[in-house]
Amino acid sequence: MNDPKTLTAKQARVIPYLLAAPSLEEGCKRARVSKVTVYRWLKQEIFRHELKRRRDELIERALDSLKANVSKATETLVTLLDSKSEPIRARAAEDIIEFAQRAIEHEVLEKRIQVLEERLVQQGGNHR
C-alpha cells in the first residue's frame, strides 16, 4: 500500500496533464488515465493539495508575466492613439480611459480600506 502522505509516481505524472488541459476530462485523456481514477485521487488530501499548489504556482507565473508586460501594452495603446485608422484611435482612447478609471477606483478603495483598518487599530482591535 502507498504512503497516503506522498504522491505515487503515476499521480505525479498526471498532474501536469491536468493543469495543461482545458478540462479534467481532456487532461485524463491526454494522461491516459481514467476519470474514475482521477476522481478517486481527488478525494485524497495529498493529491488535491499538490494539484492546487501546482495550479497556484502556474497562475502566479502567468500573473508575473502579465505584470512584466503592462508597460509594453501601455506603450502599444499610446502608440495606437496616432494610428491613421480612426476606429483604432477611438478604441485605443476608450481602452486607456477605461483602464485609468479602474486604476483610480482601485486607489480610492485601497485608501478607504487603509483608513478603516487604521480606525480599527485605534479602537483597539487589530483585525489585519
Residue share in helix: over 70%
Number of strands: 0
Q: Report the C-alpha radius of gyration, rounded.
A: 23 Å
Mean pLDDT value: 93
The DSSP helix count reads 6
The string of secondary-structure elements, in order, is HHHHHH
Specify the overall morphology: flat
Largest sheet: none
Structural class: mainly alpha
Report strand %.
Answer: under 5%
Report the uncertain regions.
none
Verbal overview:
The chain has 128 residues and is mainly alpha-helical. It contains six helices and no strands. Helix 1 (9-20) crosses helix 2 (24-31) and helix 1 (9-20) packs parallel to helix 4 (45-68). The longest helix has 37 residues, at 86-122. The radius of gyration is 23 Å and the shape is flat. It starts with 8 loop residues before the first helix and ends in a 6-residue tail after the last helix. The relative contact order is 0.06.
Using brief descriptors, characterize the structure shown.
6 helices; flat; mainly alpha; 78% helix; 128 residues
Question: Nutshell version of this structure?
Answer:
With 128 residues, this protein is mostly helical. Helix content is 78%, strand content 0%.
What are the SSEs and their pairings?
Elements: H1 9-20, H2 24-31, H3 35-42, H4 45-68, H5 70-80, H6 86-122
Helix pairs in contact: 1-2, 1-4, 5-6
